[in-house]
Structures are given as structure tokens and as C-alpha cells.
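Priority: medium. Attachment 1 of 2:
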């Protein structure tokens, strides 16, 4: 990947709706302009160059509107896409991509200057038109003076990673090769046709946001976002792409750690308990990453808790302790306290010694609780504790983000075992 993580400041010089359309980001990105894709003789797509241009950082504005497009065809609104692509639009609405610009990001924008914010918007709202709208909403100094053209809805930025973020460049629609069609073909139809490319089935399409470059932020020497490289190093890389798991049958779902079914398919868990001495026992949970094509979990935000308890014959529970699967770092992202993530295809054993009555008459219980937003929850709680130091406009979205982060935890599975008496 060639995209750099260094912040870039938008500098708009728009004086009319036409200027907004032609140059909002051409002025901010030293003239980076993207064509639809690069083709060699015979129509084959040069994938490496495609990704470099498709995810130019920052993205260029769409530019002048081609003649002949209807208002519906020209619109960047996901709702407009949904008029013809209803199933994809409905699926997208249920995804985290559709909520990429929510309270958890919005409160932080009040603490950032424009250059810092653009580092986040690079993935959360990557279109030049989205950045321009947010610049106007936040009254940042380098913002376009012109109103957005008609094909840019006023709520486009708040809709997060919209359809156009992946599928529209220079008003040209780009997508996967239709089943049974020829790669590299420019099809006829709405929008003046669209470019079909196998790049949309390639994991590199996802790497722009799910892989920081080598000079990106690190904690304990590890990139804060390293999912693509984890996948490349895994046994799954030769078998399946990101899209195979997160967009099965081309569904626009992108399910991950927030989804119990997806998480359940990623791991295999076995539970053991054995007496080690009179009144002493050892619990062991072996967790194997059998389905995630990257670390489980892949980055620092989620935590998976292994909650051990002794359950008596009458059903009463005595908590014994908790082990955590995840990458634990401080809220400043400076120090690592533990990294117990499980690479793809690997397993990790979690042990806990405890005392219990003998003869038993009880069972060991293991509850696996997933906290998809654990790191955010800690960060938001710490920020709320210092609320008097924050801009007043940041407090409402911060509170909403904190409450949402607390609400996402769920129990994934529950196992129980009777103790085994060693000879």
C-alpha cells in the first residue's frame, strides 16, 4: 500500500457549486486525480496500480458532472443507490460501515484541528465531498465557501462509509465483475455504464482502511491496525479473501466481532478441570482460532473474557476469576499491558488454579463474554471524567458514544465440566 498516514490539510478554494464539484479536494491533494482504472492491452486490469489510484490519499473530488446523467444517476446518496440496488443498500444499512461517522467519532472532531480530523476521515468518511461538508459543519478555516452541488446530499458525511466511497471515482461507477461477465469490460446501462474489475474481490481493496502503513502509529512496536498483514501471514491467505468471509455471496454486511454468529464461527473452545491436590483444582480453557483469517481479535478495541465460576448442585455460582483474550493497551495508546490475541490457525491455553470442596458435587462453568468496544468504553469513561475540560459541544455525543459502547457486550457461549480426579 502506498497511502501514507501523515495528516493532510484540506485547502478549498470554491466559490460556487460548480467550483465545489470541480476542485474541493484537487486543491488539498496537490492535484491527485483518479481515473476509473488502468487497463493494459486486451483489457486486463493492472491491480497494483488500480489500488494505488483507487485509494489515492486524499481522494479527489468527483469533478464536473458528465452530461446526460439524471439526478438519480448522479447522486452520491446511498438512498439513490438503493433505488436499483435495494438488497445491497438494505444490507449496508445494518453494517458498521453505515455508522462509521457516529457519536464516537463526532465528539472527537471537536478536539481536533482539520488536519488531525482528516486522518480519521481518511477511512470513516473518505470522499472529498464528505470532508468538505464536515469542514463546513465544524467551521474549520480551510472549508469551501460554496454550497454542495445537488448530487451531494447534506447528510452524506454523517452516513459514514457510503456506497460511493468504494464504487464511485470521477463520477464513474466501478464494481466487481458480474457473474459470467468478462473482467475489465465497461458495461452499458445506467450511469453511462460501469467498469467491472476483479480488484473488488481482492483483499487489497480492504487494506486501505484495515492496514496502517509501516510508518503508521504503533504501540509496543506493533501497528495499531495490522489486519491485512495478519491475513497475509496466515494459512487462510491462500484459501480465501477478506470478502469471502465478510461479504459472503457479495452481501454488503461486513459482519465481525460485534456479531455473535460470526464470532462463534471463528473459534473452537474446549474446557478441562482436574484436581491437582486435596481441595485444589486447575481449570484450563483451550481456545483455537479456526475461522478468523487474522488474529482473534485482530486489533486492540475488542476484548473476549473467559469468566470461570464454580456452580454448586443447587445452582449457586462462585466466581473464580477471568482471563482475557485481546490486546490491552492504555487509553493513550502508549503502553501495552498484555497481548493474548490468537493468530489464525493457532491456539492458546488459559489456566486458572482454584480451591473447591472434595468430593466435588459441583461443576466448572466457563462463560465467554465478548466486549467488542472495550477499549472505547475505557477511553470514553476517562474522557467523561474530565468533561469540564472538553468543549461543551463534545459532551452530548461523548455520552452517547459511551452508552453505546457499554451496550454492545454479549455472551458468546457457555460451557461446563465436572472435575476429573487425577490418579
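Attachment 2 of 2:
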Amino acid at each position: 500500500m502506498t497511502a501514507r498516514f501523515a495528516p493532510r490539510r484540506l485547502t478549498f478554494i470554491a466559490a460556487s457549486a460548480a467550483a465545489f464539484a470541480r476542485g474541493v479536494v484537487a486543491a488539498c491533494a496537490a492535484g491527485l486525480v483518479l481515473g476509473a482504472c488502468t487497463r493494459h492491452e486486451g483489457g486486463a486490469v493492472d491491480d497494483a496500480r488500480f489500488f494505488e489510484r483507487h485509494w489515492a490519499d486524499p481522494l479527489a473530488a468527483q469533478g464536473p458532472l458528465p452530461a446526460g446523467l439524471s439526478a438519480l444517476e448522479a447522486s452520491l446518496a446511498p438512498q439513490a443507490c438503493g433505488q436499483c440496488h435495494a438488497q445491497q443498500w438494505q444490507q449496508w444499512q445494518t453494517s458498521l460501515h453505515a455508522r462509521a461517522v457516529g457519536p464516537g467519532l463526532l465528539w472527537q472532531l471537536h478536539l481536533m484541528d482539520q488536519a488531525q480530523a482528516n486522518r480519521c476521515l481518511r477511512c470513516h468518511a473518505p470522499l472529498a465531498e464528505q470532508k468538505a461538508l464536515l469542514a463546513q459543519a465544524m467551521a474549520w478555516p480551510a472549508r469551501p465557501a460554496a454550497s454542495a452541488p445537488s448530487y451531494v446530499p447534506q447528510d452524506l458525511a454523517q452516513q459514514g462509509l457510503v456506497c460511493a466511497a468504494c464504487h464511485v471515482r470521477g463520477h464513474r461507477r466501478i464494481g466487481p465483475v458480474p457473474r459470467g461477465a468478462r473482467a475489465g469490460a465497461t458495461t452499458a446501462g445506467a450511469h453511462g455504464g460501469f467498469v467491472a474489475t476483479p480488484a473488488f474481490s481482492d483483499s487489497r481493496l480492504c487494506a486501505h482502511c484495515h492496514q496502517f502503513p509501516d510508518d503508521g502509529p504503533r504501540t509496543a512496536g506493533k501497528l495499531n491496525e495490522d489486519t491485512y498483514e495478519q491475513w497475509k501471514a496466515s494459512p487462510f491467505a491462500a484459501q480465501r479473501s477478506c470478502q469471502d468471509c465478510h461479504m459472503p455471496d457479495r452481501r454488503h454486511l461486513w459482519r465481525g466481532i460485534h456479531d455473535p454468529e460470526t464470532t462463534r464461527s471463528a473459534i473452537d473452545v474446549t474446557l478441562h478441570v482436574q484436581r491437582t491436590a486435596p481441595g485444589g483444582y486447575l481449570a484450563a480453557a483451550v481456545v483455537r482460532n479456526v475461522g478468523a483469517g487474522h488474529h482473534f481479535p485482530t486489533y486492540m478495541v475488542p476484548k473476549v473474557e473467559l469468566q470461570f465460576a464454580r456452580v454448586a448442585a443447587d445452582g449457586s455460582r462462585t466466581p473464580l476469576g477471568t482471563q482475557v483474550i485481546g490486546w490491552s493497551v492504555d487509553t493513550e495508546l502508549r503502553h501495552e499491558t498484555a497481548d493474548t490475541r490468537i493468530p489464525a490457525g493457532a491456539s492458546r491455553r488459559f489456566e486458572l488454579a482454584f480451591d473447591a470442596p472434595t468430593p466435588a458435587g459441583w461443576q466448572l462453568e466457563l462463560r465467554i463474554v465478548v466486549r467488542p468496544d472495550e477499549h472505547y468504553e475505557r477511553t470514553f469513561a476517562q474522557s467523561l471524567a474530565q468533561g469540564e475540560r472538553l468543549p461543551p459541544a463534545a459532551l452530548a455525543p461523548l455520552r452517547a458514544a459511551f452508552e453505546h459502547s457499554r451496550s454492545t457486550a454479549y455472551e458468546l457461549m457457555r460451557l461446563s465440566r465436572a472435575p476429573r480426579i487425577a490418579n
